[in-house]
Each structure stands twice: as structure tokens, then as C-alpha cells.
Specification:
Aspartate Aminotransferase, domain 2, seven-stranded mixed beta sheet, 12 strands, three-stranded antiparallel beta sheet, Aspartate Aminotransferase, domain 1, alpha/beta, 400 residues, 2 domains
Length: 400
Amino acid sequence: MRRIYFDNNATTSVAPEVFEAMRPYFVEQYGNASSIHWFGQQARAAVEAAREQVARLLNARSNEIIFTSGGTESDNTAIFGVVGAARSETKHVVTAAIEHHAVLHTCKALEKRGVNVTYVRVGSSGVVDPTDIQRAIRPDTVLITVMHANNEIGAVQPLEEIGCIAREAGIPFHTDAVQSVGKIPVDVERLGVDLLSLSAHKINGPKGAGAFYLRRGTVLRPLLYGGHHERDRRPGTENVSGIVGLGKAAELARSQLAEEAERVARLRDQLEAGILDRVPLATVTGDRARRLPTTTNIRFDYIEGEAFVIAMDLRGIACSTGAACSSGAVEPSHVLTAVGLTPAQARASIRFSLGRFNTADDVEEALRIIPAVVEQLRAISPHYKEQVVARQPSTAGKSI
């Protein structure tokens, strides 16, 4: 069976160029980057080269890049770090209701410590209104954290406007850019962010490697304690092979950013248009203009998303009902309900996320299979029979 992967927002395959760049650091150049001998200095040089590669992708200085184990650690370090370093008696954080759980759960943990958090709502587009962020600011606000692009519907947030608001108010501004880095232009100067999180495995790099951008002068309390690695920001022996992989993935993404974004967007649009043309009662969720080129989230009324994903997998196609870390959860996606979908509509929604290795043939194969899968699932749906089939006019006694 031919296998097709449309779940690139969950993770991506490691690009061959990335794997080859990493290979020597498993066996040949295995030194500890903190050691002063030849082996250690070879590793140190590789780490610093990767730091520069990541910095170039973000238009940052290399000494503003801190390596971590991934996006979740980066989010936790940024949020706990800034809030922990704030000196005000009371502390308040502004975030959005559609954030990834790496941010939302961190904010919930802060609330248990006495920090006040405002979760700004979004409309049906899935885009945060900067005015709502501005209204949420209080005298004791110590951090604004708003994601760059949503992982479920792809909605790109107006970070430039929010960055201006944060600067005028003198409040540190963090963004979870795990889904946007390497897919659309991310310029920390233009966006006006003080902290930014990213992960290697979303851009054809290895799992277990990530980084965060920390603007010079931003005060941060470390999340972990130990050695003096990463300029006392993140202790622990560096994951040299993973860092090298992240650096190479960043370089690869930067070199092909515009062309790859255009190519993938064409495939996404082809898939989306084909589904809407061939499958009745299908609807795209979120803003179709202001979104990632990789992502479409489509609601198929009168089906169960989990059943659809399983049926597609049995036919060789991988897709998702939402964030990978939420699969198996009974509750509907918090993102989809935040943009106005009912629980039933949210559970009928499917995310297709395309990437570097998808082709037009993949799309055509998916379009061949999807209508049949939807039809089969609706055929066993009592709600579909009651609300759609039963309302259709009977053809009995009519000539056809």
C-alpha cells in the first residue's frame, strides 16, 4: 500500500541533508561541547555554527539563540522565566484562548501560583484582535504571549501590531512560533517580539531539539539549574547532534522559504478545492487568506473525526483530528470551539497539513479516497439519516 502523509503539523520526516549533517556527531565527533580538548572543541564549533544558522532564519543575533529540547521547553522557559523574574507584587499575563497546550497549561500552572491570566477570545477567523490584547493589559501585566500561527487551523496572528502594543506598554512579548518558523517569514525585529519558541521536528529536523530567541536585555529566570551551559540560561550537556540537525534544517528552510511556501500552498489549495467540490456539507474552518501555506482544517458534517482518521489510515493516508498531543482526548478541540464550532462540529473536523515531501500525486490520491470515506461514514450516521436523507424529496413515482 502506498502511504501518504498529511500530518506535517504534528511532525515531519528528517530531510536527507539534515540526517547527513547529524551523522558524524553520533559516532566520530562525539565530544562534549563544554570540554576544552579537540573532541570538545569540534562539538563546540558545530553548536555555534548551528546557532548562527538559526539566528539567520529569524534575523536575530547568534548570542540571542538558546538551545532547548523542543518547543514545549522553550515555551515553559520563556513564560516561567519572564514571570518569575518580574518584581511586581501582583503579576498578570495576557494570552489567547487558541494557544497550544504548551502555553495554556503553563499559564494554568501560573494561576495556581497566584498569577492572574487573561485568555483573549478570537472570532470565527481564528485571528486575535490586537485591540482586545490592548484592552486586556493592566498595570501589573508582566508578559504578553500570543502564538504566531495556530497549529490546528493555521491562522496567522497579527504579531506586528501586538508587538507595537507591547513595546508602547513596556511589556515583554513572547510568541510560540513552532508552527510558523521555516514555513513563512519570521523576522524577530519586524514582529517586535522579545522571546520566540521554535522546534526542529516541525521543519524536517530531529525530535528532541529546539530553541528560543531571547532579545538582549530581556530579564529571564532559568527554568533549570545545573551547569553554566547556554550562558546560564539552560544547563545540561548540549544535544550536539540534535542541535546540528536543527541548524541544518533552519538553513534548508531559509534557502527555500519562498519557493516551498508557494509550492505547498498550491497543493493545499488543490486539496481543499477538490474536497469542497466533491464532498457535500464540507466547510473550511478559519480565515482562508491569513493562514499557513501548509494547513487546511475541514469540517465534514455528520461524521466522527476519529473514525475518519482511522478509515483514511486503513487506506494509506495519515491526517489528524487536531493537535497530535490531544489525540485520544474525548473533549473537542479547544481551538475549534473557540472559533465558534459546536462540540459535534469540532469532532467532525479534520486537519490536513502538507509539507516538503508532498506531491500533486498525493493530493490526487487523497481526492480519490476522501469522498468515498465520507459517504461510508455518513451512511452509518443516524443523525445524517434523520436530518439530511429524510428531508430529501422522494423520487417514488417519478420518471428518471
